[in-house]
Amino acid sequence: MNNDKRNSFAAFHIRQMIGISLFSLANTFIIARYGGLWASGIIGVMIFVFWIIGFIGAIQGEEKKVPLVGDLFQDWFKGIA
To answer: Is the whole model's pTM more than 0.85, yes or no?
Structure first.
């Protein structure tokens, strides 16, 4: 969707959401299995809060990074979007 006309705003939010999605998958398959359901539930709530922060930033037209890991997402996925 972002291939025809490169939009830095869209690329920013794509990278943030790829990171949140990967953390969510890791929480579902790794932490829930080896860390227990309580740990997975707490981390799941934290991931949901991160998603809400990113969603509100996108709606407001801001490049609002996810707390704690937003800079890492931008660095890790800089070649994707």
So the answer is: no
